[in-house]
Amino acid sequence: MQSDISDWFPFNIPQDAWQVQDADEEIFLLYCQLQSSSATLDTDVNASGLGCVDSRMGELSVRLDVQEVPAHDAATRTRSEPSHSRASKRSKAASKKRDIHSASEEPLEIQLFQDVTGLRSRKGDTGSVLWRASVQLARLLLSQLPSSATALLPSNSLSSCRILELGSGTGLLGIVLAPLVGHYTATDLPSLIPLIRKNMEHNLSPIQHSKFTIDDIDWIQLHNTPAQSRYKVFPSRNVSDHSSSETPHERSTARKTAIQEHMSSSSVQRHIDLIIAVDCIYNPSLIAPLLGTIDYLATFSSHLTYQPEAGNDIDLRPLRLASPAVLIVLELRAADVSRDFLHAWLGLPGRWEIWSIPLLGPRFAMWVGRRRDGAK
User: Fold this and answer.
1) Which of 63, 64, 67, 332 is the most buried (most CB within 10 A)?
2) pTM of the complete model
3) What does the radius of gyration of the chain's CA atoms come to, in whole angstroms?
4) Do 119 and 49 contact (CB within 8 A), yes or no?
């Protein structure tokens, strides 16, 4: 029996979504739609390769329309262009640090730096460049803002939402969403933190920085750490605050202090409403670490929700233990990897409920999930 799709903060689950109960059936349906569809990305977006926008350029200018478009068109109208004149592009990007809460319907232009050298020199490094799925999701969410009542992430939910993104890469989604949400935490491997910080500082105003946290998290390290010790791995102190002049002893002391503060803080202060992972599913060996990280965060971030006592708007009573929602987006590539991921996600303990959201077109899969029994 399907659950109530109205109980999905911060999501507004569309009526044409369907609950995923069988991984084989879901993957068969998605790949049949992909094969039978003639839809492609715009000709000015390179649709070849594994899914990066342009792995040759050190800088990209990403243009996102901030107005409503039909849902079926969400995967076909994002434009990205390589940066040919770095000085002029930087000047132009600096002038574009505007508040995307505003009613302006002018396109949002974001100047993103890529680490092309890191992509080629560090084994397994795919986050150094921008991937199409991140661009498509960013554009979809922005395009839906004018019609908040039917948006997947309505503005009234976003304004208080605390989001944590896994595998942030260049940081595009954080740059787009941080001004709109309660708080945004971008995470990735330590080697990618400087790139995220560079792009954040280049595109967001100092006021917007206060809503954007950058932290490192290694899924494999977390997955291989005994459950009772994982809090020592994450959350770490906000690495944006790390000083290059700190000694190893000072950093160790600061981390211990951060852990103590975390352990004594209330659930209201440390909970996460939404976990996002975009195009992180491509290597079979990362499926277990990624899902292990998601499951850990869902446990760590579970929090009590409250409702007023009858006839009293002040006294609140616990309603239920709520786990954060999870948003997974991927570009469809190897069907066996997608199937293995979905099968493993459905098999996690805690009665995970997963819905398939058909808003990004046939090239992409988008799933939202939540563990329905709260914390373990």
Assistant:
1) 64
2) 0.78
3) 20
4) no
Dig out the tokens for 155 from the structure. Answer: 């503005």
pLDDT at 2 over 60: no
Give every CB contact of residue 46 below 8 A, 6+ residues apart in sequence: 53, 54
Task: Give the max Cα distance, the chain.
Answer: 64
The better pLDDT of the pair 292, 249 is held by 292
CA 269 to chain centre: 20
Q: Which residues contact 322 (CB under 8 A, 6 or more apart)?
A: 9, 302, 303, 304, 305, 374
Name the residue with tokens 């940066």.
83
Confirm if 204 and 175 have CB atoms less than 8 A apart.
yes
Give every CB contact of residue 5 below 8 A, 6+ residues apart in sequence. 13, 15, 17, 355
Strand 108-113 and strand 162-166: pairing?
A: unpaired
> Residue 50's pLDDT band (boundaries 50, 70, 90)?
low
SS3 186: strand
Amino acid at 357: I
**Dihedral sign from CA coordinates of 141, 142, 144, 148:** positive
3-state secondary structure of 306: strand
